Structure formats: C-alpha cells, structure tokens
Amino acid sequence: MDLYRNNNFTGEKLREKNLSWVDIFEEIPIKVSNSALISAFMTGLEADTPVTQCDYDRLQLSTSPYLERNVEFLIDSMDDLSIEQQKFQYHYRNLSRQQAQQQAWLQKRRSENMTRKAAGEEPLPEEDPSNPIFKPIPEPSRLGSFLITNRMANYCNQINGVSGQSFSRLYLMKALHKN
C-alpha cells in the first residue's frame, strides 16, 4: 500500500518489498444469500418439472463461446503486456544511450583537463550537475504490467477449468457411446 500511495512501482522498490504479480490482489470470499421470502418467490417462479426428468443440458459438449471469449481476452491481455514490455525496452534503450553520452562527455572532459594541465590551467570538474545528460531517467511504473499479468493468470485458470470439464464430458460421452 505504501508503494501505491507514493505511486512508486519501480523494479527496485518491488524487489525491496519482495512483491510479485501474485501479491497484488488478495481473494476475499463473499457469500451471497437471499431472504426466505425471495427464496419462496423464486421457487414459485420455477417451472413445474418432474424430479425424474433427466437434465441433458449438463452433457452439452459445446463450451466454445465461453472458451473463445476467454481466449480472445487472453490474446488482448498479451498484446497489452507486449506494449508494457515495449515501454521498458524503450526506457532501458534510453538509459544505455544516456550512459554512452555520459562516458563520451567524461572522455572529452578528461582530454580537456589534460590539455589544461599541460597549459598550466586549473582542471574542470569531472561531473557537471547542470548538464542534462547527468539527470537520471525515471523508471516507468510496473503496476500496469503486474495487473496485466494477474489478469492473464485468471484467464488461464478459467480456460483450464472449462477445458478440464469439457474433457470430462467428452470422456463420459465416449463411454456412453460405446455402450
């Protein structure tokens, strides 16, 4: 929560706190219940069906709309994560470019100082705080990538659950078909 209040989701701060994408959200169980009056009303709305009637809808093999939608959401999340990774690549590319500029500037300054020493003048300081190449580049926030990764894990779990149920139904139907 301290990181969220300060909006400081950098890689260094996350490593200090030992946080990963799994730690971002905590699942809280919620129990929803209806009053007795609502339950009685809902029972009255149900169609009168005999208890002996078989519920064949449970054996329906088609889960494609649900599965298809979750796979589409997963693909969209992967695209979002790719965009987040591009932001970090851009940051690190700028950081390496800045370090190269700093090294070039330091080499130039050292050669100037050698020339000044040879001429008997006082050398210039090696680091100039007013120079913009010495200004640190802020690291982008990692909160977005953590949230996207958590969302992708949820979609994968849902896909895994649905596909597991579908395989169970398929094996059941295969066994019934053999008989």
TrEMBL record:
eIF3h C-terminal domain segment(s): 1-178
Start and end residues of each stretch annotated as Disordered: 103-137
Compositional bias segments (type: Basic and acidic residues): 109-120
Top-rank lineage group of the source organism: Eukaryota
Protein name in UniProt: eIF3h C-terminal domain-containing protein
Taxonomic source organism: Salix udensis
